[in-house]
């Protein structure tokens, strides 16, 4: 390229950069307006509501899936001379769509690399997997329809049949009903089938032209690179395990200090629990938070199925009392990867409404502690925090009592053992931290209110938007700040809040569903 053309490109690029910097406020305002309209008309409205094994699907979800299908269909059929060529294209596209599925051994790590929530990458994983299998099925049908011989005595054909069958079986076993029976069995079967299919597809492509093999080289290189990189985020610790009836607390003493942001989680592996635990790891939200690095992490576990239920049985005598009981006072070797996940910028909002049900409080507590710290250090603009906690069992309250005590500076904090009670903690962050009174005194100062029955979220959100609890000076002329509604709760609670927040989108109210959601 001629030197004068390079000079013109550089000069034009500098001028364009300066212009964009100058118009940055207008560009940001335009993006906010577009984001608001997209939320009102695409993200929040749902075409298919939540069901047991699928949904909810918003308009944006459906549009994205239709666009994804359309693009792949167009690529398969664009200017193809015959059906056989379309089948070969489908095979190549199937390999390309497999890259997000085979790019790493752990979805959490891949989500961190891309900077997206885990739920988003899980959706990418599902969509690309279904598309890969669909394109592969079309490739197989074109071979059958061509009536060309396909002898299985040829190793290349046999490898392709085994690899394709493994992918089909992998997709069938990913049915939500089968997955809900035993997640540990599902995930290991899923991983084994993925390895089998990758190996035999590789063997099938050995004698093929270079182009399809390049795609296999790409996801093989990506997998090995991320696996090697993930090794640097593996940590060793000592775990002390205690239980409170049906709740479990794990305290990890770290071998080296670690910075964990509010809302992040780790994938924990305790190989000494049992033989099967050698092959099992599990994600857990970190309930503790510190402005600097931490020497220990607190985890609160809600036993469901699999490893968490087995852990509870090991800790408590019962039907399996003949088995040796774990001594929670003895530290056990534990390995974990992370921290994973995205920490929400809660300090950018003037009001933060935190809504949790049951063990969902564990995901909210680090944010609550961070908000208190940021308020006192004058790092955040947050002026009001309102915590609503829908209690379901007494054990959950007892399990997290120590952390709540630390936050409220109240040794007498207790929770009611009535099913359906909730605690509404409503005050400024400074009052929350400086409180030293008991529950009765806290209630008289409107710091902690205990109510019977479900919280009236519609009334609470309306009062927060009307700023009934924020005192402003008459000379204050700044515009109202945004409200962030954070939820970690049941499906019904999240759906209810989504419908409520949708009506307040024009009033600067935003909804954030945290990474951890209780069953």
TrEMBL record:
Transmembrane spans: 6-23, 128-146, 158-178, 185-202, 214-234
Subcellular location: Cell membrane
Catalytic function, reaction form: 2 a Fe(II)-siderophore + NADP(+) + H(+) = 2 a Fe(III)-siderophore + NADPH
Keyword Protein transport among UniProt keywords: no
One Gene Ontology biological process: intracellular iron ion homeostasis
Enzyme class: oxidoreductase
Alphabetized UniProt keyword annotations: Cell membrane, Electron transport, Ion transport, Membrane, Oxidoreductase, Transmembrane, Transmembrane helix, Transport
Membrane topology listed for this record: Multi-pass membrane protein
Example GO molecular function: ferric-chelate reductase (NADPH) activity
FAD-binding FR-type domain boundaries: 230-346
EC number: 1.16.1.9
PROSITE patterns reported for this sequence: FAD_FR
Annotated InterPro entries: FAD-bd_8, FAD-bd_FR_type, Fe3_Rdtase_TM_dom, Fe_red_NAD-bd_6, Ferric/Cupric_Reductase, FNR_nucleotide-bd, Riboflavin_synthase-like_b-brl
GO cellular component, one term: plasma membrane
UniProt record similarity statement: Belongs to the ferric reductase (FRE) family.
PANTHER family: FAD-BINDING 8 DOMAIN-CONTAINING PROTEIN-RELATED, FERRIC/CUPRIC REDUCTASE TRANSMEMBRANE COMPONENT
Official protein name in the record: ferric-chelate reductase (NADPH)
Originating organism: Bimuria novae-zelandiae CBS 107.79
